[in-house]
Structures are given as structure tokens and as C-alpha cells.
Design brief:
Elements: H1 7-34, H2 39-47, H3 66-79, H4 81-100, H5 103-114, E1 120-123, E2 139-143, E3 146-157, E4 164-170, E5 180-186, E6 192-197, E7 208-219, E8 223-224, H6 230-266, E9 268-269, E10 272-273, H7 278-306, H8 312-337, H9 348-358, H10 365-377
Parallel strand pairs: 1-4
Antiparallel strand pairs: 2-3, 3-7, 4-5, 5-8, 6-7, 9-10
Amino acid sequence: MNIFLNDELLMIKKASREFADKELVPIAGEIDDKELFPRDAWKKLSKLNFAGLTIEEKFGGEGMNDVAAAIVMEEINRGCMATAGTYSVHLTVSKIISNFGNEEQKSKYLPKMADGSNIGALVITEPSSGSDISSINTTATKIDNNYSIEGNKIFITTGGEADIYIVFAKTDINSSYKGISAFLVEKDVAGLKYGKKERKMGYGGSPTRELIFNNVKIPKENLLSEEGNGFSIVLTGLNHGRISVAAGAVGIAQAAFETALSYSKKRKQFGKTIASFQGIQWKLADMHMRIEAARMLVYKAAYTASKGKNFIKAASLAKCFASDTAMYVTTEAVQILGGYGYLKDYPVERHMRDAKITQIVEGTNEIQRNIIAKEILSGK
């Protein structure tokens, strides 16, 4: 893999891997079991300047590209998916503000996001609106110099812990996609309430909450871009997010593979290690092949995005294949460990539970296949 990375990217990969091994792997199980938000891990991650990895240097960031972000995302997920989930959405929010915010908005929000003192989160999904973003019911009504936001949002990653939210609401209830706008909403604004933290199959340390907007007034200056441009912002955010999810899925798969590989070399049955059995060898070979292929798709998508080219298909290819790979590899890892794989004494059962969400978030894999088909049928 190193032939595709320059010296700077190799240094980033080394630093993020060492950070994951030292700071994240030892705490990941407890964070998941107790559903603890990894605040200390976030602070340590920020001290390495990872929080501002893709933010421009003039706003306190590192100014790195999507390839660097994908590399770090893989390693952080290999260590602790709860930490990585917060990191992924944070990077997406900073990318959106960088692409669509004006200079005043960038100057206000990006420096605190770059040093990690402020965490970003996306607010899109509603009880009646998942994949069909055009059907959102949350409204933003302009009154004098303010907007009043009303509505309920669900499944918000880092809900209640984030400091700045990008909220999508309709400024024209009579329109579909063209009626959606995006707003910057701060954590403690009056009228914003947080629902209960959802209990999930996996991804335990990453809080998922309902956000309730009851006459939340924000200044008109917090409109991101212009009215009616929210859907374009959503698509941009989701496409970048899909690369993050794909990179994370590779990290989860790699972690499970490494555990299974190590276990197979030590576990003995019938007088020999199980790694000597062809059935196990084939499993390991298939797991390794799929991880390598998934990583290549991630790098291609990230590279294409970094060059400012159309990366819609590349992002969907990477997200769909990598998340399917994560589910396959983690399931096989549990199988290789047998009964031990089903116990919490080993991390592969957690990896398998974590892997499932990667097939759902940022657009289900059924949606990804629709996008891929549309792109190839149109000749792109």
C-alpha cells in the first residue's frame, strides 16, 4: 500500500496508527460497554492536530486533503469506532463550512473546530425522512433579521455533545429539494432540546439523540450559503461522509482481521494450529483480499475528491464495497474464533456489531447501488 502514499502521508498514517494503538484500542471495549462519550480521547486526538486536519491553515488547520483524512479515519476506526464516529462527522461539518460558508462564518467557527474545542455535527434525519431528504418537515421561517426553526430531528450522531450543528430545514414548504436550506446552530441556543440517548446494537460510545427545535431563533447571518441551496450542501456533505464511512469500514475490517490472524496462529486443535488448516487459510485469504480491494476504492475516491473532480460514483463505490467488506470480514473473524469470538473477552464481536452501521449511515447500501447504477448508465 505504501507505493501510493508520499512521505508526508506515510508519516500521518504512522502517527494515527500509533495513536490508535496507544490511546484507543485499550479503552474501546469499556467505551462501548458503558456507552461513554470518548471526551478524553477526543482531546488527545485534537492535540495531534487531527481535528483540523482538512481545515485551511489560515483558520488554524493543517490544510490536508481527503486522502490524508481517509488514512487517519481508517486508523481511528481500527482503534475505537465511537471516537471515529465523532471525528468523521466533525470533518464533514468543517468541510461543508469551508466549501459553503462565507469568510465571517469561517473565521467564527473553523478555528475552534480546528483545535478541537468545538465539535461539529450534522442534523438531517427526521422520523418520517431518512433516505428521502426532500420529505423533511422541519421549517425555518424568516422573521425580521432572524430565522425561527421548528421541528424534530432523530439519529443525530454526537447529539448533545457537539458544539455546532448544521441543521437542514425547509424555508419553502411548498417546494421539494429546492425548498431546503442549511443553518449553523450553536449548542446552547434557546429552544433547542435534546432527547434521550438511543440504545444501539453497536457504536456504543457515540451518542445518537433526537434534537427538538421549538422556536429556535438564530440570526440571518447563520444561513449557510443561500436559501434553497441546502440540498446541494447535503449531497456534498454526504459524499464526503461516504468516503469517511468507507475508510472507517476498512479500519474495522482490518482490526477484526488482525485479531483473527493472530488467534489462528496460536489456537491449536488436533495437535496443530488452526492456521494450518486450509479452511481457515481460505477464510484469511478472502478477508485480506477484500480489505485490500476496499482500501484501494477508498484511496481512489479520496484522491478524486482531492482533485476537485466529480467523485459521486467513486464515493458510493467505496462506501458500499467497504461496508459490505467490513460486515463480511468481522463475521468471518467471529467464526474463526469460534465460541471465543462470541464473547466480549475478544473484540471481534464488537467489531461485527460496529460494522453493521456502516452499511446504513450516509445512505444505505441499497441507495449506493442506485447511485452507482445511475452513474454508469449515464456514462459517467
